[in-house]
């Protein structure tokens, strides 16, 4: 048994937990970080597969993500723009391939008008409701007890417009069918990015990448913490004491006595930890109404970015295709070309029912319908499957089921005694992004510092 004493124990070495630990140590408190995996980074993971560097997890930086940009500056990390020169491709519900430029969406005039009208309605709701406390709005219960799909169907009978608008939230963000989450949850997703208009603009939301990979944010923060980060150490129990302190036990015979603990893991993993005394009834109920979605992030590397030779940007979009989104994901300074595509929710279910070779063939055939037959011949092919990852179990972040957000949302960030919660899943701005993880880390650290300012000095 290795027993240590710290001011704060952080469970989870992703961007949120490490951000919290960073701010706490900068303020003079002692910390220990327990991480279940054999690496830091959480849902960010930059790895080399068959000689190709791939962003297996979160990767993009958008202009509104000021907290992430500040952290990149602190850590000395640089960004570069996603390649977007050339025409985009839209595949219609009938399978027609349309090449288009700019923001002129190539659907029928009626469908485009309906999409613009729906975006305007959602933008108005976002401006009214905001990201910080959507559950407090007078219409919260109304919007939270109707699915996003049904709400859109009540507004229009244009199925193509509904499919396209749904995709931006369902497939592109929450990775759940649009009938499985509420309109209020969709509004929160849009509000976290500033507007629904931002959310549907790939040149905004998928603006830049980090040179060398997003996982470096966590790696460099962990380097600053040194041997205070413990890998292969999943926390198994959190015991609260009458004096307000807490003891955490982790694999490897680790025991840490602290004044506060930060749970910096997605809410679906909270039940993996035994709490003594148990968490309050409301916490137990709330966590049962939160879940992650499912997506296959597909990486395909080619000898050259062949689509550019055809005047294409590599961007493809379709609400009816198997791969509903595809983008040029070529690494900074790499002569080879990389595409990234996404297969979400029920379509991912269907793909995982297939043998690996058939799944690969179906996915590449779908990408080829956007970018041509050369897409079926990558030199490296890899599927990120976070749904089977033991310490994540889904993508990209937790969201509530119907009715859950207005019922429980106000409690998701509320500490339970010495236990604080910090992850992108419960962020306001930057919700489910690295930016939100960093914001929550800073927010949680500030709350702990304010709380401990009236208690005893830091642990030596």
TrEMBL record:
Keyword terms: Oxidoreductase
Cofactor(s) in the UniProt record: FAD
Pfam families tied to this protein: Amino_oxidase
Residue ranges annotated for the Amine oxidase domain, each copy included: 16-449
Highest taxon listed in the record's lineage: Bacteria
Segments crossing the lipid bilayer: none
InterPro entries assigned: Amino_oxidase, FAD/NAD-bd_sf, Flavin_amine_oxidase, Flavin_MAO
PANTHER family assigned to the protein according to its UniProt record, in alphabetical order: AMINE OXIDASE, AMINE OXIDASE [FLAVIN-CONTAINING] B
Homology family: Belongs to the flavin monoamine oxidase family.
Protein name per its UniProtKB record: FAD-dependent oxidoreductase
Native organism: Gordonia hankookensis
Lineage: Bacteria, Bacillati, Actinomycetota, Actinomycetes, Mycobacteriales
């Amino acid at each position: 048994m290795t027993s240590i004493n710290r001011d704060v124990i952080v469970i989870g070495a992703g961007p949120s937990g490490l951000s919290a630990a960073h701010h706490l140590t900068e303020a003079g408190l002692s910390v220990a970080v327990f991480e279940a995996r054999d690496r830091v980074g959480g849902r960010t993971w930059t790895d080399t597969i068959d000689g190709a560097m791939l962003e297996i997890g979160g990767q993009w930086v958008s202009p509104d993500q000021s907290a992430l940009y500040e952290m990149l500056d602190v850590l000395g990390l640089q960004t570069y723009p996603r390649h977007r020169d050339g025409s985009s491709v839209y595949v219609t519900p009938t399978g027609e391939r349309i090449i288009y430029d700019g923001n002129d969406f190539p659907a029928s005039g009626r469908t485009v008008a309906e999409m613009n009208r729906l975006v305007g309605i959602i933008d108005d709701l976002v401006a009214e409701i905001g990201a910080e406390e959507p559950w407090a709005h007078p219409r919260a219960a109304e919007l939270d007890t109707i699915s996003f799909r049904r709400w859109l169907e009540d507004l229009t009978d244009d199925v193509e417009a509904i499919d396209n608008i749904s995709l931006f939230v369902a497939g592109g963000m929450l990775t759940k069918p649009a009938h499985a989450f509420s309109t209020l949850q969709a509004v929160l997703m849009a509000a976290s990015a500033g507007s629904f208009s931002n959310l549907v603009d790939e040149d905004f939301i998928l603006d830049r990448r980090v040179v060398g990979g997003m996982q470096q944010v966590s790696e460099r923060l962990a380097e600053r913490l040194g041997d205070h980060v413990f890998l292969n150490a999943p926390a198994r129990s959190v015991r609260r004491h009458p004096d307000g302190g807490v003891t955490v036990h982790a694999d490897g015979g680790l025991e840490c006595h602290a004044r506060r603990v930060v749970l910096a893991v997605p809410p679906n993993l909270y039940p993996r930890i035994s709490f003594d005394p148990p968490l309050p009834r409301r916490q137990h109920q709330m966590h049962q109404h939160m879940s992650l979605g499912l997506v296959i992030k597909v990486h395909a590397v080619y000898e050259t970015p062949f689509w550019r030779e055809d005047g294409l940007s590599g961007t493809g979009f379709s609400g009816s295709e198997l791969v509903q989104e595809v983008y040029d994901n070529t690494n900074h300074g790499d002569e080879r070309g990389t595409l990234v595509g996404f297969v979400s929710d029920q379509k991912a279910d269907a793909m995982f029912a297939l043998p690996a070779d058939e799944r690969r063939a179906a996915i590449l055939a779908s990408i080829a319908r956007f970018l041509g037959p050369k897409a079926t011949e990558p030199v490296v092919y890899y599927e990120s499957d976070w749904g089977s990852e033991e310490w994540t179990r889904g993508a990209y972040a937790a969201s509530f089921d119907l009715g859950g957000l207005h019922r429980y949302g106000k409690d998701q960030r509320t500490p339970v005694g010495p236990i604080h919660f910090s992850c992108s899943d419960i962020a306001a701005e930057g919700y489910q992004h690295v930016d939100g993880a960093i914001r929550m880390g800073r927010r949680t650290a500030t709350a702990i510092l304010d709380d401990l300012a009236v208690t005893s000095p830091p642990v030596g």
